Amino acid sequence: MVSRQTTLGVLTIILFSLCISANPVSADDEKMFEAAGSVEVAITGEPIHVGDTLSISILVHNQGSETGSVRLELSSIEGTNISNGTDTEISPGSSREVVVELTPMKAGLMEVNWKVTSDDGGVSSDLQGTFEIQVLDSQTISVNFGLTEWSLDEGLFCDFSITLSDGKSRLVGVSVSLIESGESILVQEFEILMNPGIRSLWSDFGHPDASMIIISLSPIGWSPSNSVSNLSWSTTVTSPVVSPSVSIGDYGPERPSPGDMLTVDYTLSNSGDSSTLPGILRFVSKSDGGMILAELPISAISAGGSSSGTISVGPWTDSQVVEADLVWSMDGSFASDSISISSESDVDSGINLPFDIMAALYGAILGFAVVLIGLIVMRAVSERTPSTESGDKVLRESRITVRQESTSDKKEIPCPSCHQRLKIPLSHSGMVKCPACSSQFSAAPEDNGVDDMATSQKTTDSVSEPEIPSIVTVSSLEDELSCPECQQMLRIPLDRRPVHSRCPACRTEFLAEVG
What we know:
This protein is mainly beta. It has five helices and 33 strands.
């Protein structure tokens, strides 16, 4: 009979042999990998959408005496390899997480086989299995433009919203660009974490030279159902236009006097598509070189609106006629209306001159000078001594001969008014004008054999006599009288009579008297 101890020993040897046959370990490799805890894989990243990446992991323990590497592999039910993880090195007696990533490319229920493998061998049969995941359709993302305004005071403003379909929260990059002169210019760029639903955003652009706003989205770490080429949205914009105008109404007083206060009614209108900026209304005198006579602040006027009021101007200038502009100016634009106002001084004269007074004055002075020169020439011609030449043509003598003859054949006579001694030709008969006192008297030709003193005395006596028998006498009680020969009306002042005169028309000499 076999003892009990012998029976136990045999059973122990048999069990050990069975263990060795079930888990063979080579002599040169004593590594043994088994699950360090649960034998089920952990799935991270659910819910999962098409294009998302899942993380599948399991904790593996190395109970061998040498370091070894393992990896996690995924395959379909049909046995097609789906994804292989990277090799993970595990030291003896240590445990490490072995990870593989999976990116589903279609929606629906997905059944996946997994297992831990090692090129070094010694992997427990428990490190394998199957799991299922529900893959959802890809999320969509879009942009909706809300309020887009462009005004002169606040600039370009754009309100827009981003919509993300149901699913997971997503990180999204947002870029905003403007189209200026056909060229895209990036003006804003930022990242936001989008939760499923709608998120409102806004942007201020100032006053750009833009015709379009473009908003582009870029998913960060995920794939939307929109293709990359369809992740941009745009809207056109138009720069604001103001069209200001000024209209001058009634004003009073109608003819202001210097120093008065003038009130002018006005109407300001804006026919543009945007509100105007606040500005200033000025009353500017063009007659005084652009002097500002009054100004008034003006508030912004809305598109298609108007505003009326009254501006006070004063004190009024002393100009006869004031040409002025009512100017409405603001940043970037202006408008004006003209007005002409006559002062009170124009009423006294009764004349509203349609020309420049200074120009007329200069013209009058020039005309007076021309007339004066003409009169001097006419008088010189009318008082020229008649020629004593005979009708026969003679050869012209030299100037020296003529000068010598004219110098030698002269006589000296005194002026009866100022006693200035004058030299006249011996053969001259008729009137003589004194260059000193401008008086005129008659000088008769001197007889042969009479000396200069006798001639002078005779001339003086003849002038002192009121009448000369050989000259016709003409009398009148007015400054004007008629020529005795041609009846030409002549002007000879009464205070200069009696005086010898010559008609400039017929050359007739006569004595003008009062009577």
